[in-house]
Automatic annotation (TrEMBL):
Gene3D superfamilies: Helix-hairpin-Helix base-excision DNA repair enzymes (C-terminal), Hypothetical protein, domain 2. It comes from the Archaea. This is DNA-3-methyladenine glycosylase family protein.
Length: 310
């Protein structure tokens, strides 16, 4: 099926981010030309292979249903949100004409649309696990959550030639793709979650699943969404803001609780210390794209020193 992106769009920018986006690295397989991702669409597990289409604003997506077939259109919406295909960057780029330092960032990220967590619920669970915990530990806890109440799908890599067959007839060369559980799956497996994790984290995960299962969070405007997320047991202002940005793609304001943004602003604009006032004043020219301005800054900073991965 064909997916459409709002100009300007560069799929290679998405691939580069996907190749280095640690929280969800085991949910996808990236190559120079495509990415394979997995998830649930209306509770049905699927894999989707996405590659550039007939022009720069189209993508081709092939859906593989793991069990019972579902609605490909639901997967199209899932992928569109994940890759932020409908985001309009023109106002951001136009406003940057009066911001010479930020033009350097645009030169690096031209055509980049935000890559979110595959679902807002997964972003929320990451935030629930991440508080006061080293990233490598959070990744391992997330894997435990997926293997316990989600789904792991084994498949041959795209370039597999059929050699090295195992004794049972299967391939000895497989990619493992982790399909993060839906709120319903996590709630069904709540007793397992409570055994796996410390009490505070388990309670926060279950409360998060309850909130996502019972509330149409995506319909809320940003202030209401932040308030509702912060009301989840175990959440704070940082977690609410993190999920709003990285799960729901809310980019209408700079994330004031992101220390990485402050460091990037200090470097790019030559500030000794970036205050809330600096963030709001510098982002003001970008209006409802001020959160995108912030996201470009943190993405630019994250890429600056990384080794090429593609």
């Amino acid at each position: 099926m064909e997916l459409h992106a709002t100009e300007p769009y560069d799929f290679e920018q998405s691939l580069r981010t996907l190749s280095g986006f640690d929280p969800c690295a085991d949910e996808r397989v990236c190559s120079d030309e495509d990415v394979v991702v997995g998830g649930f669409a209306e509770e049905r597990p699927f894999l989707a292979t996405v590659r550039e289409g007939r022009d720069t604003t189209t993508l081709d997506a092939t859906v593989e249903w793991i069990e019972e077939s579902g609605d490909d259109r639901v997967v199209a919406d899932w992928l569109g949100a994940f890759l932020s295909l409908s985001d309009d960057l023109e106002p951001l780029y136009a406003a940057a004409a009066d911001d010479p330092p930020f033009r350097r960032v645009l030169d690096t990220l031209d055509g980049y649309h935000q890559v979110r967590f595959p679902t807002p619920f997964e972003a929320a669970c990451w935030a629930a696990l991440a508080r006061g915990t080293p990233t490598d530990v959070v990744r391992e806890q997330r894997r435990e959550l997926v293997t316990s109440v989600g789904r792991v799908v084994e498949r041959p890599p795209p370039d597999y030639d059929g050699s090295d067959v195992a004794a049972d007839g299967g391939s000895t060369h497989t990619d493992s793709l982790f399909l993060f559980p839906t709120p319903r799956l996590l709630l069904t497996g709540a007793p397992v979650v409570e055994r796996l994790f410390p009490e505070h984290k388990a309670r926060t995960l279950v409360a998060t699943a309850e909130a996502f299962a019972t509330s149409a969070l995506s319909t809320l405007d940003t202030p209401e969404l932040l308030d509702r997320l912060e009301s989840i047991w175990g959440f704070d202002a940082w977690a609410a803001e993190y999920v709003a940005v990285h799960g729901f793609g809310r980019t209408d304001r700079p994330p004031l609780h992101d220390p990485g943004l402050r460091a990037a602003v200090e470097e790019l604009y030559g500030l000794p210390e970036a205050s809330d006032d600096h963030l709001e004043r510098l982002g003001e020219r970008y209006g409802r794209c001020s959160g995108y301005w912030a996201h470009y800054l943190t993405t630019w900073a994250a890429r600056r020193d990384e080794a090429p991965t593609l």
